[in-house]
Automatic annotation (TrEMBL):
Annotated keywords: Heme, Iron, Metal-binding, Monooxygenase, Oxidoreductase, Signal
Descriptive protein name: Cytochrome P450
The keyword Iron belongs to this UniProt entry's keyword annotation: yes
Stretch forming the signal peptide: 1-19
Organism of this sequence: Acer yangbiense
Domain of life of the source: Eukaryota
PANTHER family linked to this entry: CYTOCHROME P450
GO function terms (MF aspect): heme binding; iron ion binding; monooxygenase activity; oxidoreductase activity, acting on paired donors, with incorporation or reduction of molecular oxygen
Family per similarity comment: Belongs to the cytochrome P450 family.
Transmembrane segments: none
UniProt binding sites for heme: 424
Length: 492
């Protein structure tokens, strides 16, 4: 016990845990929450006010920036000086092991090369599209239709955020492992794997929120409370993942199309394979669900955008016609613009941190001390006049279109998928998923928000790695009256 207390005291003395400046005081006393709904909104306010769009929170030893030049410097120019770093990899290490999401250096380079090679193949693209199609047509749409058909005078309220999380877990599990957890089948109990995965990602994220890492490390050492639960959840994930790998080795993996089977052709170490695939699952699950949740929320507040998406779909695909090809999906420029615009205002990963290896100076003149954290903040960046103009707070898909054609912006201005060398590897798959789900929903259903707190104009987020609406996204769903052919909307 004496050792633990001494370690804690040593840590507290080493850190600058007390600071009287206004910002640190507001942070420590939580007084910011009197004026702002979310921590990210308070940081946005501070970043907008700073002449360089960069701030420093002394008690956290954290530089936070919304300046695109700084973002480019960290993610590209001086990439090697701004790795994810040990503090981050320790937090997620028990769950992710040596998986791509959690490593730097050679191990990252190796996995990035291998994953890029696989994800660039057209065979994996059509496999991903096939899975997304199946989950939408055979799970998501029937589920929403059955809720819409319920004969209840007041309608049945559905939490769409929860449905999107189930959708992306089913899709990502099939894509990564070739496993079907059937989370979208509400009549079935949730699979042990999905419960364990949910718990493990939640508890791992909570580690990042403790005042000092020593607290969770001591709990882990003593196998107490949340750390004991985390260990148990990870054990369930390990058993299942390693069992799938063993079975796949026995039955042969050469003919399977999922990511795991593809990686098995190059990697022999089963634990390493488990780590690689679990990273993909984590990276692709909550992000997609988060993007869909805020998109539906914004659409409900902007009916003219819903009409424009429908008109474009009727023009490209044909009224009451099924989507016929991947190419048609690509031609939906307005839909792509609307999704990009939605993630500009509500990025699924609101902020992302790196650790500075050696003392450095950012392009705006900010000094960064070695061993400290530097965070870029896509949520704040989407709200900065100098980046997006005076109408930056408005939801305007048109800002991404030139003569009706979608034009991407500089990725350091819009680091929603990160940018530079470590840019998201699943960006294309994510866009196919988002467009496909959005198209199916908008063409077939009318979705009405049910106000949880009627006077709230902005969503309130729960703390975590990915933006999550606290209280979910309660909606009422009605089926639109369509000719029968559209009831099978997707590529056949
Ligand atoms: C709207 C959906 C998505 C968004 C906004 C998004 C965003 C991001 C961001 C910001 C990062 C950098 C995280 C960091 O380094 O700390 C990232 C990395 C990554 N993403 Fe995505 N992602 C999405 C969907 C997906 C999907 C569907 C997959 C899988 C197919 C995926 C796979 C990955 C992987 C493997 C990495 C790690 C790349 C590396 O470290 O080199 N993502 N993503």
């Amino acid at each position: 016990m004496i050792i633990i207390v001494s370690l804690l005291l040593y840590y507290l003395l080493k850190q600058k845990l007390w600071c009287n400046c206004e910002i640190c005081d507001a942070y420590l006393t939580l007084s910011w929450s009197k004026q702002f709904d979310n921590l990210c909104d308070w940081f946005t306010y501070l970043l907008k006010k700073s002449p360089t769009n960069t701030i420093h929170i002394h008690v956290l030893g954290n530089t936070i920036t919304a300046n695109p030049d700084n973002v480019e410097y960290m993610l590209k120019t001086r990439f090697d000086n701004f790795p994810k770093g040990k503090p981050f990899s320790t937090i997620l290490g028990d769950l992710l092991g040596r998986g791509i999401f959690n490593v730097d250096g050679e191990s990252w380079r190796f996995q990035k090369k291998m994953a890029s090679l696989e994800l660039d193949r057209s065979s994996i693209r059509s496999y991903a599209l096939e899975i997304i199609h199946q989950v939408i047509e055979h799970r998501l749409v029937p589920l929403l239709s059955s809720v819409a058909a319920t004969k209840d005078q007041n309608g049945v309220v559905l939490d769409l955020q929860d449905i999107f999380r189930r959708f992306s877990f089913d899709s990502m599990c099939r894509f990564s492992f070739g496993l079907d957890p059937r989370c979208l089948e509400l009549s079935l109990p949730l699979s042990e794997f999905s419960v364990a995965f949910d718990l493990a990602s939640k508890l791992s994220a909570e580690r990042a929120m403790t005042v000092s890492p020593l607290i969770w490390k001591i709990k882990r050492w003593l196998n107490l409370g949340s750390e004991r639960k985390l260990k148990e959840a990870i054990k369930i994930i390990d058993i299942l993942a390693l069992d799938v790998i063993k079975q796949r080795r026995k039955m042969g993996f050469l003919t399977h199309k999922d990511l795991l089977s593809r990686f098995m052709r190059t990697v022999n170490d089963d634990t390493y394979l488990r780590d690689i695939v679990i990273s993909f699952l984590l990276a692709g699950r909550d992000t997609v669900a988060s993007a869909l949740t805020s998109f539906v929320w914004l659409l409900a507040k902007h009916p003219h955008v819903v009409s424009a998406v429908r008109i474009e779909a009727d023009t490209i695909v044909g009224p009451n016609q099924n989507l016929k090809s991947f190419e048609q999906l690509r031609q939906l420029h307005y839909l792509q613009a609307a999704l990009y615009e939605s993630m500009r205002l509500y990025p699924p990963i609101q902020f992302d941190s790196k650790f500075c290896e050696e003392d450095d100076v950012l392009p705006d003149g900010t000094f960064v001390k070695s061993g400290t954290r530097v965070t870029y903040h896509p949520y704040a960046m989407g709200r900065i006049n100098e980046i997006w103009g005076p109408d930056c707070l408005e939801f305007k898909p048109e800002r991404w279109l030139r003569d009706g054609v979608f034009y991407p912006e500089n990725s350091f201005k819009y680091p929603v998928f990160q940018a530079g060398l470590r840019v998201c590897l699943g960006k294309e798959m994510a866009m196919v998923e988002l467009k496909s789900v959005a198209l199916s929903l908008v063409r077939r259903f009318e979705i009405e928000l049910v106000a949880v707190t009627p006077h709230r104009h902005v969503p309130r987020f729960s703390p975590g790695l990915t933006a999550t609406f606290s209280g979910g996204l309660p909606v009422l769903v009605r089926e639109r009256v369509l000719s029968p052919s559209l009831h099978d909307n997707f590529i056949t």
